[in-house]
Amino acid sequence: MIGAARAAILAAVLLSDLSKMELWPAANWRAFAKMLREAGLTPPRVSPIVEKTAGVHPALRRPIRRHHLRALSSPAGVLMRLFMFSEKVTAEEANEALGEWLPRVQSIGLLRTETEGEISCPFVLSLFNNLLLFSDELSHGGDAVIGFGEGTIELCRAALPTKPIESALDLGCGSGTAALLLSFAAKRVVATDINPRALSLARINAAMNSIANVEFRLGSLFEPVQGEKFDVIASQPPFVPMPEGVHNATFLYGGSRGDELALTVFSKVAEHLTPKGRAVFRVDWPLYGEIALEDRLFQTIGSASDLVLVSAPTVSNEDHASAYASGAHPLLDDAFDREAEQRIEHLERHHINGIVPSIVAVQKSDSKQGTALRLPTVPFSKAPVESVHIDQLFAGIACNRNDRVLLSSTLRVPEKTILAQEQVGPGAEVESSLWARFADNALGQPVQLTPDLLFLITCIHEALDVRSGLESFAEQSEIALDHAVNQALPAVRHAVKTGLLHVVVA
Are 152 and 176 in contact (CB under 8 A)? Predict the structure, then answer.
């Protein structure tokens, strides 16, 4: 078994040299990207291949993907195998697919010839929103540069603003996915990373995608942007708990417990937000201690900010350990067994009782005392969190702390919500219950209703604003308006907190 120190040294050796790639003119990268797109590396061509293995464990995807890629008769299949899925191709296949580009990209180290004469790519090319993005193969560990996975996609969906902004920060940018996506909404973007290799690849990716309004800065956390404030901050800090003796990876581990680095970021983020700015994070949080997760985060950011925590179902220690061990040992061999057990034992030693995947958003409060809101939901793969959802949740916080604002707000039940009366088992004597169940792509968990609550939210849903809805509720219930307001507003607030009603944001 290779020791951790020796493994780190080997990883550094295996990481490909970027010096020649960095010197390649931006015009060459743009032309190369244009060739790849014209050859078929576009979302409509790539997505069907990815979807074929969407429900398959990552360790088992290779043969399925290879089968479908080799069925493609066009150069696109060869280019996908070579650049996107880390497969070797024959020299003949590479020459046919790349033509005059083959010797050019070989000369800068983007492609290399193996001892058997086959052609391979030491990098991984990804496609996101028509952006072409190079990153490292993460099995190298060490200073390998992460591209984007499901977590990065989730971050980008939640962070991308619905309106144009002046400035954005991608904190810990990796290969630059969030920064390059934010460049379409922001006039100016700053992307920072502690890893010089990450910034090199991010610059290459900016050149490939003809993006010129992103500035790349080297440094740890907020050091490169001291004194600066941003309208949007997006970050997916390393958050995996690190057991002793595992192969280190800069992009992966957030400390022994996993949340140490992310909490450090949280303690400083508010001072780097403009008055109406927002920070969005994608973090898997360890559960430990007696303090609720949302309260722990709220205490860290400070009481002058509002915090929204959208949490997916908790991942067990066993599932977490198996997932990360299988990533390091895809053959699922004895080394996988040892590392999975090591990770479970590490979590137990730190009294961690599961891992919570989450989207967390922070913005300055319009009150002296901020608020923390947690909204549990289904897995993000089923209900993606988008910035419009974050807008609604913050608007809900603002409404709920001010009666006047709440009464003048327009609230609606989410589209495609199913209202159903249910009972477990047959029989007239069996009690039934009334539930609101949200659409698959909506946030929030099912909410149990009473007939009175259903009537109340119906009145509010059909009204121009909450005040009008309460007037209708009072009139039809034959009670005084003041009494209806006093009795119903707490229920309305709770409905907003649980996602049963959401604020219509202008």
Answer: no
